[in-house]
Amino acid sequence: MSILIRGARLRRLDGLYDVLIEDGKIAEVSTSIKRGADETIDAGGRLLTPSFSDMHFHLDSALTLGDPRYNESGTLIEGIEIWAEKKRGITVEDVKNRAIRAVKMMVSYGTTRLRTHADITEPRLATLKGLLEVKKEMKPLIDIQVTAFPQDGILTEPGNAELLEKAVEMGADNVGIIPHYELTREDGVKSISVAFDIAQKYGRDVDGHVDETDDEQSRFLEVVAAEAIRRGYEGRVTAGHATAMHSYNDAYAYKLYRILRRAGVTVIANPLINIHLQGRFDTYPKRRGMTRIKELLKHGVNVALGHDCIRDPWYPLGRGDMVQALFMAVHVGHLMGYQELRDSFDLITVNAARALRIESEYGVERGKRADLVLLDARDELEALALQRPPLLVIKEGRIIVRRSNAEAEIVVDGKKERLEFV
Ligand SMILES: [Zn+2]
Questions:
Q1: 281 and 395 inside one domain
Q2: 264 CA distance to ligand 1 centroid (A)?
Q3: Alpha helix stretches (DSSP H) within 299-395
Q4: Active site residue 212
């Protein structure tokens, strides 16, 4: 099966390009391809980008909103309490059904790579089992990595560290941490060491929840970076949320940028959830509670984004659209300069590929894997302004989502007009 996409815009290039896809790979990119293909698609000057990555998500809790109850306080802690009630009787089937629905929504919005957490402090490990099956079954649509996530802490209960290791033995791709949720600062530090021990023993990456709090005293990110350096884990660690960084003093933040860069730690911001859950103990002025994306990037630290949650105890909204997550990020992070908006798509594309160490196969270039999204917009600004679902999503050279564009008709005094947003 070959596909020829004609007249597409590509990021950071002027003019229009044709892209030929053969055998799952990009065979040619040029201003005019003479060869034919099994299917030819006219892009009409729209933007063709590599497909999106969601670097931090909770598939096991997705679409449980209101079950068993709604989060009325809007706090992270009430969310964890509701989830603790829900997961008591959770079944593999329940996890799978919801996760598959959520995955399909995400794919339809252009995400074909996903890192999901599976809460392994549920002792029957039903969430992990369910998500490992979803990973396998959804492979034609999306590449999933499952992180063994100790939601209730590694050292808070006897047996959690063993569950974490067991989850990795069962096939979890990455080892999780949540040091700010451990009982003491010392336990937090120790929990990081326990997780790195397991990661090293099984050759896995570390993918943590780190400093997801407004507490400026929460400083586990430096410990995570130091462990990465000492254990030769540079480039193999992601730190999700890191919202406390919003509240650090600038001198300390500056020190942190340096060691994060040296450790090759990727920081994953989750703008939709961070703006909703953080700042909840403030009166006014209220903090934004998102990590410092702009400054981290400026200091050479890799940053990518996660959607984190869809309609669950922590976040009541969402449709699995990484452009919507990016829309929130550019607002909250003051990334609204013209060039900043153009560059912002790196956060959901190439920066994630760097964190996943798949740069050699990622991009709209000859020889790379044909994982692509044709957006209903001419450039990044239009994509963010309109937030239209993509017209095409392609994974490994196969079209997995197809849409006609969402044109609207408006009737003025009985006369029909076609609305042009682009
Ligand atoms: Zn999370």
A1: no
A2: 21
A3: 322-332, 338-343, 350-355, 380-386
A4: yes
